[in-house]
């Protein structure tokens, strides 16, 4: 691709009926920190900062414009020390295997692309820019640039994108002008490139003409991202999935060769049958607001937050998204720590402080980690920590394992691993979803996104 395209993308960024079983690893992403070599408090500070930056993005999103047989696909999923979980997917003819961050808070699937791929600020531990795996379109016989009159171009840029096909003959259905370059913002970075039509290859199934992003330039994105959101360009939408599910291995296994399965189900399936043992709550209808990015989120109907035996009173406008898009709860595999809008967070944090008043607050550790409250627990042989429960519409209760909401990296100090707007970075976030359920709080739960029946299921389970 031409150097001028790379420079223009940099400018944009700077300005702005048989069944099959396939196994692909889902692993934690290791590009930001090596857990074994890191100060645990510095690591917590990084994850808190990442969670807040991610929350800011989700609340203020940038908004740019197979066959029918039943199948079951299992993909290995690995935890990473930067706070996410990764999978590997194969694209092209012959297939090229690339790692991706699995992300339910965005929709486009994209990979680092061509030998000219540039990634700014990507020299993380264990990763150097010249070691980033890149997809090479010239080595794939099935790789095609998406034209601006292709209906899939409108998935990202809206229906009016075809009116901007200036180099096309209006009377001709054929057009060689490419679809507009995309620019996508994430919590701590961004990426830009062009859209390709490619073959997605699984061991026993291939998906032709899959829309995928060929990213030429990124900031802090050394791996591709597999978008599992609700928009047309997402992996679940393009595969026509009925449901997908995962069980996230504990972050204590970050960067270890330990994985669990991401399971993709499509075809006629089991109708409206529920998975045995799961508690379910319906997905909430997404708010109809001008920012279309909110439409790709998975909204849940959170009704109560319980600390110990105390029901924390949450104002209604934080529990239900309004016509302006503010409020409500979403579930996001790309966020690490759960985010709560400041008034919600303060009520929850204060309840922990009340019920743990016998322990001394560790202000020094709070400053180091950006987390609050932190307690000195060295004085007692046994430690009392109140339970944390999220109760959803329909009565489904998600009772958190202790490791999911209190850090125990130090024998003397424990911190609540929930963040809010100005815990680490300056100003509070005041729009978009009020609560973002991150992957740290989803560890060791079996999680199911039942897309066909519009419901979210879960049960506590040790993930292996």
CATH homologous superfamily grouping of the largest domain: Acid Proteases
What is the 3D shape? Answer: globular
Q: Helix share of residues? A: 10-25%
E-strand count: 29
**Oligomer type:** single chain
Report on this model:
This protein is of the alpha+beta class. The protein has two domains: 21-30 and 40-58 and 82-266, Acid Proteases (Cathepsin D, subunit A, domain 1, Beta Barrel), CATH 2.40.70.10; 279-460, Beta Barrel (Cathepsin D, subunit A, domain 1), CATH 2.40.70.10. Strand 28 (445-450) and strand 29 form a beta hairpin. The longest helix has 20 residues, at 40-59. The chain has a 16-stranded mixed β-sheet that branches. It is built from eight helices and 29 strands. It is 16% helix and 31% strand. Residues 1-25, 30-37, 64-70 and 423-429 have low confidence and may be disordered. The chain has helices at 3-15, 40-59, 153-157, 235-239, 316-319, 342-355, 363-369, 402-405, and strands at residues 25-28, 71-79, 85-91, 96-103, 110-112, 118-120, 144-145, 182-185, 190-202, 205-219, 224-227, 241-247, 260-266, 279-282, 298-300, 302-307, 310-312, 329-331, 338-340, 360-361, 374-376, 388-392, 397-399, 406-407, 413-416, 418-419, 435-437, 445-450, 455-460. The chain is globular.
């Amino acid at each position: 691709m031409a150097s001028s395209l790379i420079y223009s993308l940099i400018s944009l960024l700077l300005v702005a009926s048989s069944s099959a079983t396939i196994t692909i690893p889902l692993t934690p992403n290791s590009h930001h920190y090596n857990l074994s070599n890191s100060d645990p408090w510095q690591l917590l500070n990084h994850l808190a900062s990442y969670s807040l930056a991610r929350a800011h993005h989700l609340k203020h999103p940038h908004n740019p414009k197979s066959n029918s047989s039943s199948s079951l696909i299992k993909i290995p999923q690995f935890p990473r020390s930067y706070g996410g979980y990764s999978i590997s997917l194969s694209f092209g003819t012959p297939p090229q295997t690339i790692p991706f961050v699995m992300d339910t808070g965005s929709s486009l699937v994209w990979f680092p692309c061509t030998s000219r791929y540039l990634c700014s600020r990507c020299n993380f531990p264990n990763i150097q820019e010249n070691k980033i795996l890149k997809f090479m379109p010239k080595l794939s016989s099935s790789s095609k640039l998406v034209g601006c009159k292709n209906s899939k171009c409108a998935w990202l840029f809206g229906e009016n994108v075809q009116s901007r096909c200036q180099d096309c003959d209006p009377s001709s259905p054929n057009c060689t002008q490419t679809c507009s370059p995309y620019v996508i913002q994430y919590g701590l970075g961004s990426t830009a490139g062009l859209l390709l039509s490619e073959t997605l290859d699984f061991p026993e199934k291939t998906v032709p003409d899959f829309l995928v992003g060929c990213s030429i330039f990124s900031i802090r994105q050394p791996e591709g991202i597999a978008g599992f959101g609700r928009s047309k360009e997402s992996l679940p939408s393009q595969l026509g999935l009925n449901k997908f599910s995962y069980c996230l291995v504990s972050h204590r296994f970050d960067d270890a060769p330990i994985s669990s399965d991401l399971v993709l189900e499509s075809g006629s399936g089991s109708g409206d049958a529920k998975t045995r043992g799961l508690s379910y709550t319906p997905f909430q209808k997404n708010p109809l607001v001008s920012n279309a990015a909110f439409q790709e989120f998975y909204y849940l109907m959170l009704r109560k937050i319980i600390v110990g035996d105390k029901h924390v009173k949450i104002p209604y406008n934080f529990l239900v998204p309004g016509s302006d898009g503010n409020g409500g709860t979403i579930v996001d595999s790309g966020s690490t720590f759960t985010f709560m809008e400041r008034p919600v967070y303060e009520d929850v944090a204060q309840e922990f402080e009340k019920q743990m008043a016998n322990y001394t607050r560790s202000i020094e550790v709070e400053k180091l980690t950006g987390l609050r409250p932190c307690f000195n627990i060295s004085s007692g042989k046994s430690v009392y920590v109140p339970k944390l429960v999220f109760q959803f519409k329909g009565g489904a209760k998600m009772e958190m394992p202790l490791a999911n909401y209190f850090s125990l990296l130090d024998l003397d100090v424990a911190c609540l691993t929930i963040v809010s707007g100005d815990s680490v970075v300056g100003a509070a976030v005041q729009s978009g979803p009020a609560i973002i359920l991150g992957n740290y709080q989803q560890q060791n739960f079996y999680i199911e996104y039942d897309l066909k029946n519009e419901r979210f299921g879960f049960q506590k389970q040790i993930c292996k």
